[in-house]
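[agent] plan:
  1. take the single chain provided in the ticket
  2. run structure prediction with default settings
  3. attach structure tokens to the ticket
  4. add a short note for the reviewer (M.T.)
[agent] executing step 1
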Amino acid sequence: MILRNTTPKPVLALVFAAASLCAAPSYAETDAQLMASGQWRDPATGLIWMRCSIGQRWTGSTCSGTPIELNWQDANDSFQLFNQDGFAGRKNWRLPKIEELVTIRRCSNGWGNEIKTIGNLTINMGVYKATLPNGRSVPQRCADGSRRPTLDTRIFPNTPDHWYWSASPYAYSYGGAWVVYFYNGAGDNLRYNNGHVRAVRAGQ
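[agent] step 2 finished; step 3 output follows
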């Protein structure tokens, strides 16, 4: 059954207001200060991520509570409301593009290979790839047996092994948008389904 988002806007306002109180406003610059305030700077991209999913609360050491689920349009629109109060003194949070969201995946068993069977022959085609909107090919999924959720839970504690929205529409599926499924890989889902949200901002 397809579930549509039924979270009333006043409830969203309360959720976002609570999230904004989780970390005292600060303009932390060092990596240690960012981590303590519920943020993480990716040394590879320079992007700064909220360590908790939207709907969770940063306690000072971990993420508590249950992430809310939103459809794609609400996930995009919610940041206008969220940034009224912001988080950790910043008001430039946004939904990540798929090219950004895939960078926080971590696969304990490496990337999954594409296996083709022709008659009685089995051929390993190498790492199964997905082509992103910017034309870049990235591994599509983690190898079988990888720990779930497929990201670093020391950085992103209490993350469900479910799918998270990106801001990127999916060009090959009408009404679809790119997601990262932290159970095993990346792909698309229908925009009116509900998914989780993680916020990102530029590193300056």
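[agent] step 4 note for reviewer: The helical segments are 9-20, 31-36, 72-85, 98-101.
[agent] ticket updated
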